[in-house]
Write a structure and sequence with these properties.
Blueprint (H helix, E strand, L loop, with lengths): L42 E4 L5 E3 H9 L14 E3 L1 H8 L2 E3 L10 E3 L3 H4 L19 E3 L10 E3 L3 H7 L1 H64 L4 E5 L2 H6 L3 E3 L3 E2 L6 E7 L10 E8 L15 E6 L9 E6 L5 H4 L12 E8 L19 E9 L8 H10 L7 E5 L2 H6 L3 E3 L3 E2 L6 E7 L10 E9 L13 E7 L9 E7 L5 H4 L11 E8 L19 E10 L2
Antiparallel strand pairs: 1-2, 1-3, 4-5, 6-7, 8-16, 9-11, 10-11, 11-12, 12-15, 13-14, 13-16, 17-25, 18-20, 19-20, 20-21, 21-24, 22-23, 22-25
Length: 552
């Protein structure tokens, strides 16, 4: 068996050149590195003194933030000296193993190839490889740790065939076991990902259902909210050519009001047939008809919109007060009244195009746009006494999101004064509340924090609510600089709050209330440049009750 060596492993990419030149180099060519004192490898020149260094040497100096090794200047930079490298690499050198018998000489640029420890398969038999260079066994990957001079390695390979086969078999088994372990881990990760994917798909389904619910709710709220309301009639020419009627979405004259819709005959009917657009409004069966006074006696105003500017519209008014009974009676059979009220000659076809004098155009992109602007004589005098009281109360009720401004903050803080907000309701026909702000804090927060108290108050709908109050109140201290970065606190009102605080208020006074002692510290109120945030500005704080989520 070939004798093994204990010589340490050489790197495949030499970090330094340790060799001697065949001939004395020209004096004009710098050959040695001032740091490692060996032949320059990848020379980099310093801008401070002009000396060249090995790239690895000077990078180590700069990483440690040391001065230039030659002129001791601290602030310097380096750049690759390609001209010196070209001159240097063309010089002839001897093999570093010359003392051991290697007689190779060649250009410095070929030295690394001569000493290559791991040549490619086609280069292993090349005669210019150094026979004395210590290399690793080809079966190192399988676990053979033998390192020998290149000339002794063939004997080692011939003598240790059984050992190498055994190592390869063990390595193959270990590799198979490792692959099995990785496959098992991947299967486990796949199962976890499938579970996560199923959960996400379920969440997406729930979110889609919630989104559809919110969309329908929004459409319903827009539908019930009253006027003004706008509608777009598309494919006008087709409706006109095929004598097809177009119907708008239903709308309400006001909150809790009468339900109507607009029907347009693009080709016209009666006196306007073939020359005009006819427009008719119909009463419909509505959700609030039980609370309304019948027959309907109001007037409805609507416009055909100028699509070039918000002026010079074509308007009309339908006065249901002069209409006959079938047009204005409550709809009890079916969804729509048997007869409507309108104009056979609402507008002539010739007026729909561009009018350059008035800068007006009603028909654009084969569409007409209508706006029902208002309805009169159908207000509070048309509803029942109970509905009048509810509407009167709701007209002056504030519900979240609602904002309050605390002014003269420094005066309140310096004099230990408090500020009381106007009352607000948690939701329409909900709980009545107010906030109390102590600028300088109270009890353990005094002098360091702003304290916020929450109070329940006697409200108009307390008889219909569930007591004690339970829910989450989200309150924000607003950032004055931009519409984000607000300071937010969620106050949970649960069973831990006493009934004296959360029970029904039967007197004109407020309940005992509950507090957030350390709502926000005083030092957080000033300008924060990193967050572009400032809560205290112009000696004022702005609070917003963002939402109230009830749990009962």
């Amino acid at each position: 068996m070939a004798q093994q060596t204990s010589q340490p492993a050489a790197k495949s990419q030499l970090s330094r050149f340790n060799c001697e030149f065949v001939d004395t180099p020209p004096k004009a060519v710098q050959t040695d590195c001032p740091v490692c004192l060996l032949v320059l490898r990848e020379p980099h020149q310093a801008t401070c003194c002009g000396y060249a260094f090995c790239r690895a040497c000077i990078e180590h100096v700069r990483t440690d933030q040391k001065p230039c090794p030659t002129c001791t200047r601290k602030d310097f930079s380096v750049f690759p000296d390609l001209r010196l490298q070209r001159s240097l690499y063309e010089l002839c050198v001897r093999c570093p193993h010359k003392a051991g018998g290697c007689q190779w000489t060649g250009e410095l640029s070929q030295l690394e190839k001569h000493l290559n420890e791991s040549p490619k398969l086609g280069e292993r038999l090349a005669t210019d490889l150094c026979p004395l260079q210590v290399i690793s066994c080809e079966f190192q990957y399988a676990g053979c740790e033998v390192r020998l001079p290149r000339r002794d390695m063939p004997a080692h390979l011939a003598e240790e065939v059984v050992t190498h086969v055994t190592l390869m078999a063990t390595h193959s088994q270990q590799g198979a076991a490792e692959r099995d372990r990785q496959i098992a881990e991947l299967k486990q990760e796949t199962r976890a990902l499938r579970i996560t994917l199923a959960e996400k798909e379920s969440e997406i389904t729930q979110l889609k259902a919630k989104l559809e619910e919110d969309r329908l709710h929004l459409e319903t709220m827009q539908l019930y909210s009253g006027l003004p309301a706008e509608f777009t009639m598309k494919d006008f020419e087709r409706h006109k050519r095929d004598n097809e009627l177009w119907c708008s979405q239903p709308f309400y004259t006001h909150l809790h009001g009468y339900k109507l819709y607009l029907r347009v005959d693009a080709h016209g009917h009666s006196d306007g047939k073939g020359t005009h657009i006819s427009a008719v409004m119909y009463l419909m069966q509505g959700e609030f008809d039980d609370h309304l006074r019948w027959p309907f006696q109001g007037s409805v105003y609507f416009q055909l919109l100028n699509q070039l500017q918000d002026r010079n519209h074509h308007g009309d008014m339908f006065d249901f007060g002069i209409a006959t009974a079938p047009h204005i009676n409550r709809v009890t059979a079916g969804d729509i009244a048997p007869l409507g009220y309108g104009e056979a000659k609402f507008i002539a076809h010739s007026k729909l195009g561009r009018d350059r004098v008035l800068n007006r155009q009603f028909l654009k992109d084969d569409c007409l746009r209508f706006r029902v602007t208002r309805a009169t004589n159908v207000g509070l005098d048309q509803v029942t006494q109970l509905e009048r009281q509810c509407l009167a109360i709701e007209s002056r009720v504030c519900v979240p999101p609602v904002e309050f401004t605390v002014r003269n903050f420094k005066e309140l803080k310096n004099n230990d004064l408090d500020w009381l907000s106007p009352s607000f309701y948690t939701h329409p026909r909900g709980y009545r509340m107010c906030l109390r702000v102590f600028a300088n804090g109270i009890d353990s927060a005094k002098g360091t924090h702003v304290t916020v108290y929450f109070y329940l108050m006697r409200g108009e709908w307390d008889s219909y609510l569930k007591w004690p109050f339970r829910g989450d109140i989200t309150i924000q201290l607003l950032n004055h600089l931009e519409p984000k970065g607000h300071y937010e606190h969620v106050e949970h009102v649960g069973a831990d709050k006493s009934d004296e605080c959360t029970g029904r208020v039967t007197t004109e006074e407020k309940a005992d209330g509950w507090s957030c002692f350390r709502f926000v510290s005083h030092h957080e109120l000033s300008y924060d440049q990193t967050k572009n945030c400032q809560y205290l500005k112009y000696d004022s704080l702005c609070f917003r009750v963002a939402k109230v989520e009830l749990s009962n």
